Amino acid sequence: MNTTATSSSGIRSDNLPPRKPGPLRLVFRIIRWTTYAAAIVTLLMVFHAAPPPVIATSPQATARVEQKVQDVEQAVASGQSATLRLDQNELNSYLASHLDISPAATTKSAPNTAPSGDASSNLPTPSGTPAEQVEQVRSSVRNVKVELVEDRVRAYVVFDFHGKDMTLQLEGRLASANGYLRFEPVSGQLGSLPIPQSALETAVQRMMDSPENREKLKLPAEIADLRIENGELLATFR
Question: For a tag site, which of 5, 81, 114, 145 has the least CB within 10 Å?
């Protein structure tokens, strides 16, 4: 018995050609797979660490910074104004010796345990922030390098994100306004992915204007001005 269905014209239905997808279905498929591809490329770029800038550091540069700081402190104590000038080599050498960002910091210590002789443990803890939270933030930072380019500062930061090292690069201009540190972003990059300028400006503005961060950006009373000029960091004390 033949069970194959036929149409009214006598043409067998199993011989009909497959229906082609309509234009709307085809467009939807293209958009869907394009979105998937874009998401994969974005993730790959975010987790692709950008190479660090090559910046020389030396104990001699650190010693020069400490001597400059002493000279400024003596001038301020005697009632005179003074300007602290640091070039790129001096600034990075000082950071490398005073911040807990050495390779040894990649080994996470037990909670509430601070390494002995840690110079950065003497840094003031922001009010309202638990010491454990501060230690967690510090331990996530793997490396920090700062470039001084004309009137701009370019920061390169390596941090731990759930066991994966990620890089963040920010470039902008430093300034002081009404006793507070201000940062005007010029460009940013997360991993190898550029951050849109509008998103970068909005994020920085919200961070600097938030009540919990505003006091952290307050400059010491003796600092009258802070800026980058001709590839040097200039801090004017009064």
Answer: 5
Element (H, E) at 77: helix 59-77
Return phi, psi of residue 130, to 5°.
Answer: -65, 145
| 67: its two tokens | 């001597």
Whether 86 maps to a domain, the answer reads: yes
Q: Which two tokens stand for residue 109?
A: 């210590």
CA R_g for the chain: 28
206 falls within a domain = yes
d(CA 5, CA 14): 8
User: Could you give the count of Cα atoms lying within 13 Å of 48 in the half-sphere of its Cβ?
Assistant: 9
What's the structural domain count of the chain?
1
Place of tokens 């998937």: 36
What's the CA gap between 52 and 96, in Å, rounded? 14
Per the domain annotation, does 37 fall within a domain? no
Going residue by residue through the chain (238 aa), what tens digit of pLDDT does each one get?
Answer: 444 444 444 545 555 566 666 677 777 777 777 776 777 776 777 777 788 888 888 999 999 999 999 999 999 999 889 999 999 999 999 888 877 654 444 434 333 433 334 433 333 444 444 444 444 444 577 788 999 999 999 999 888 877 788 888 999 998 888 888 888 999 998 888 898 998 888 988 888 888 877 788 888 888 888 999 999 999 999 8
SS3 at position 15: helix
Domain that holds residue 166: 59-237
**Cα 138 from Cα 115, distance rounded (Å):** 12
Structure tokens at 124: 């003031």
